[in-house]
Amino acid sequence: MLFMVLAMALFAANDAGTKYAVKTLPVSEVMIWRGGFALIFVAAILVWRGEWREAPKVFDWQVSLRGFAEAGNGVLLISALALIPLGNVITIIQLVPFIMTIIGAMMLGERVGWRRWIAVGAGFLGVIFVVKPVTGSFDAASLFALAATFTILLRDMLARSIGTRVPAFVVALSSILAGIAVGAGGLFFQTWQTPSAAALLACLASGICLVLAQFFIVLAYRGTELSAVAPFRYTIVVFAVIYGFVFFNEVPDLWSLAGMGLMIGAGLYMLHREARRARTATTRGK
Predict the structure, then answer these.
(1) Taking the mean position of all CA atoms in its chain, how far away is CA 272?
(2) I want to staple 179 with a disulfide (CB 3.0 to 4.6 A). Which of 71, 98, 144, 258 is the partner?
(3) Is-contact 237 87, C-beta < 8 A?
């Protein structure tokens, strides 16, 4: 549980560092600098762990596709972070488990009870409170974060297919390389700017936090029940609000706070129902 909370704090710190850097640098350049620092860090880890021999697996088609899904996600999230509050971005992408439930019911034939459907509706209502699409407070940049939920879905589905046959840091290496490649491609459309020392430091911190977050989330899920640690994923919203206030003087309005609370509550309830259903299935199996 502590590893999960630490991973969420690091993921939110990565987003905060990225948000700071993108204030003065174009999206493509932030991806290159952040990816470059992360590449050095993860390469050192692969050598230290003796996994560098597995590096050619980055060319596995599923690993590569996941990497480019992660890179696309990076473009969308950095674009959103440049324009809207950190807490709002993090809250919007928490829609992923709700969308996965809908896909499971409509495309995979999974059974979803009425309680979970209510939770799904509550999750979407929470995002509406945060985004405020029919008010003057609506920011079209929220659509970047909404689009990012689908790249996250693709990334996570591919991660399930990859499983444990490829070391976690090799998968991370693929994502970093894809991000650098996409960032380099973006320079055809954006002008390279000389970064300040502060922007470079933010990219360095962001890259290190991103790699460490992926490491700790692997540890969090190792040797324990998913239902025990998964609820702590929602601490990322709390960290995002704290970082947003401390570093960017962002204070969510009452509607946004209500939406965040509603989404977290709905998400926790869905996790509770999933755990209960799993226990029931296990009992019947015995």
Answers:
(1) 22
(2) 71
(3) yes
- One pLDDT digit (tens) per residue for the chain, 286 residues: 888 889 899 999 999 999 999 999 999 999 999 999 999 999 999 999 898 999 999 999 999 998 999 899 999 999 999 988 999 999 998 888 888 888 888 887 777 788 888 988 998 999 888 888 756 656 778 899 999 999 988 887 887 777 778 888 898 899 999 999 999 999 999 999 999 999 999 999 999 998 888 778 777 766 666 666 777 888 999 999 999 999 999 998 898 999 999 988 988 888 777 777 766 655 665 5
On the 0-12 / 13-18 / 19+ scale of CB atoms within 10 A, 160 is: exposed
Is residue 31 within 8 Å of residue 186, measured between CB atoms?
yes
Can you list the alpha helix ranges (DSSP code H) found in 111-163? 114-131, 142-162
Beta strands in 38-195, from DSSP E residues, in sequence order: none
Rounded Cα–Cα distance for residues 38 and 75 (Å): 16
Closest CA to 125 of 95, 102, 82: 95
Domain that holds residue 214: 2-285
Both tokens of 158, joined, read 């591919």
Helices 254-285 + 114-131 axis angle, to 10: 160
**Tally of structural domains, the chain:** 1
What is the model's pLDDT at position 141? Answer: 81
Q: Which residues contact 247 (CB under 8 A, 6 or more apart)?
A: 16, 19, 20
Residue where the block lists tokens 């976690």: 168
Residue with tokens 């996941």: 66
Quote the tokens at residue 165.
């046959």
In angstroms, the Cα distances linking 67 to 17, 85, 258 are 21, 26, 34
Burial class of residue 274 (count of CB atoms within 10 Å of its CB; 0-12, 13-18, 19+): middle
